[in-house]
Amino acid sequence: MGRINLYVHYDSVTNHIMTRAISLRSSDFNEQYMPTNLILGEAPPEFGRFDAQTNFKILRGHTEVYDYMEMCRKENIRMSNWIDFESIELMHQLSPTEISELLYLFHAHKTLRSAFFYKLQNNYVFLTLPNGLNKMYYRHVTHFYLRFQRVIQEETSKLVNEGKSRFFGKKLVVASLPTVIVEQLSPLFASGIKINYSQAEQREHTWRIPLMIIEDELTLLSQNQALNESVGVLIYDTQGQTWQLELLIDLES
């Protein structure tokens, strides 16, 4: 499989993050923030039940939510659009207007007012767009960091182990990207960045992964760009198993 470039674009007005090639897993949630219940935008046949009062298909309890996410991961199928909620009793108090807003959010992939409903007490909304993008609303944007760190670790592991046989050659273990580096990098999310694995370069025992601002120009995601367009470089040292972020622009200017 060839190298895959990653895309992250954060909208601070609505608190959503648009991504490409950054999957969602149950492990991407801290235990205390794992969704308790989900309203599903679609109706997977093997999971959930229809709520008689709202006619929403729902998952109830951490176990059902976990099992559904794990099934999507293991079978590599598209996850339904969903929104989490805390209490079935409060969910039943949604007004017809609020239900209409929720259905609009699932089908139009944007909000009429807010993606965060008082009666649901939701922390997230997950949406899959037709063009291969995922859009996720985060009440607390730092909850995105675990997901980002996991995918960076996975894609960098593929990078540093390129060409190694499945049966021959010891594969290198890649350390997780430290949270402090994600925090340093996060201001670039608002500009729409490409994590450019396709043009990553090896220099002795380090790998340099360019970072480029592409805003909404998604055609650039699959194209090689001049390396002098980089705004930063993620550097992974395979000997020391350490990460470094080298910013080439002043984020405070």
Look at the helices and sheets and give the structural class.
Answer: alpha+beta
Tell how many strands the DSSP assignment holds.
13
The proportion of strand residues reads 15-25%
Termini Cα gap? 39 Å
Instruction: Provide the gyration radius in Å.
Output: 20 Å
What is the total domain count?
A: 2
Mean pLDDT: 94
Number of helices: 5
Helical content stands at: 10-25%
Name the helix and strand elements from N-terminus to C-terminus, one letter apiece. EEEEEHEHHEEHHEEEEE
Write down the overall geometry. Answer: globular
The main β sheet shows up as:
13 strands, antiparallel
Low-confidence stretches: none
Can you characterise this structure?
By secondary structure, the protein is an alpha+beta fold. The chain folds into 2 domains: 6-140, no CATH class; 144-247, no CATH class. The chain is built from 5 helices and 13 strands. It has helices spanning 62-75, 88-91, 96-108, 144-160, 179-185, and strands spanning 6-11, 16-20, 37-40, 49-50, 57-60, 82-85, 124-128, 134-138, 193-195, 201-203, 206-213, 232-237, 242-247. Strands 1, 2, 3, 4, 5, 6, 7, 8, 9, 10, 11, 12 and 13 form a 13-stranded antiparallel β-sheet that branches. The longest helix is centred in the middle third of the chain and has 17 residues, at 144-160. The two termini are 39 Å apart. The mean pLDDT is 94.
Summary, kept brief:
The chain is built from five helices and 13 strands. It is an alpha+beta fold and 253 residues long.
